Amino acid sequence: MGGLFLFTKLFSILMIILFFPIFISGSIHLDFKRRKYAFCLKLYEKIRIFGGYATLYTEGIALHVTNKKAVLLPYKDINAKRKKFSFIKTFELISIKTIVESPAEGLLPITLFRSIFDILKNFLPNLKQCSISSWISEKDTVTINSQCTLFFNNFILLVDLLQFLWRKIKQLWQEKPKKSTI
C-alpha cells in the first residue's frame, strides 16, 4: 500500500513539473534620439531573470547585462545565432502591449506600429491581448515602450529537445562514412 502511495505522489509531482505553466514577461524601452535601448526579462512578472541595455556600434550590437559585462553581437552573425535558437518556436506569445510617444510632426512611427499590430493580430491566433497606445508628446523624440508575455511549460521544451536530438542523431548517422567492399 505504501508503494502505491509513493508512486502516486511521485507521478503527481512529475505531472506538475511537466505541465505547470511558466510565464516569461519581457519589457523593452526604445528612445531613438538618445539612443537608449533597455530590456528586462522576468519570470511571472516578479522574478527578474536578466536585463540591461543595448548600444549600437558599427561592428554590431553590444548587450550590457551587468555594469562590467557586455556581449557584442556582430551584425553578420546575428542571423546564424538566431537559427541556433530554434527552440524559440515552443514559446507562445499571449500578450503584447505597446506605447508609442511621438511629437506631432512624427506621426509616421505611430501609423507604422499600428499597421504592424494589425498584421500581428492576424498571424497569432492565440494572442489574447494586443494593444497599442499612441501619445503625441512635447518631447522631440520617438520613444517606444513594449511589454510582452510568453507562455510555455517543461513538457513542450522536453518534446522540442527530443526532436532536436533525434534530428542530430539522424544527421550524424547519414554523414557516417560507408565502408567499401572492394
Written overview of the protein:
The chain is α+β, with helices and mostly antiparallel strands and 182 residues long. The chain is 35% helix and 37% strand. The chain has four helices and eight strands. The chain has helices spanning 2-19, 78-84, 107-123, 154-175, and strands at 22-31, 36-43, 47-56, 60-64, 70-74, 92-102, 129-136, 143-152. The chain has an eight-stranded mixed sheet. Helix 3 links the parallel strand 6 and strand 7. It is extended, with a radius of gyration of 23 Å.
List keywords for this structure.
37% strand, 182 residues, 8 strands, eight-stranded mixed sheet, alpha+beta
How many DSSP helices? 4
Gross morphology is extended
The tally of strands reads 8
Give the helix level as a range of percent: 25-40%
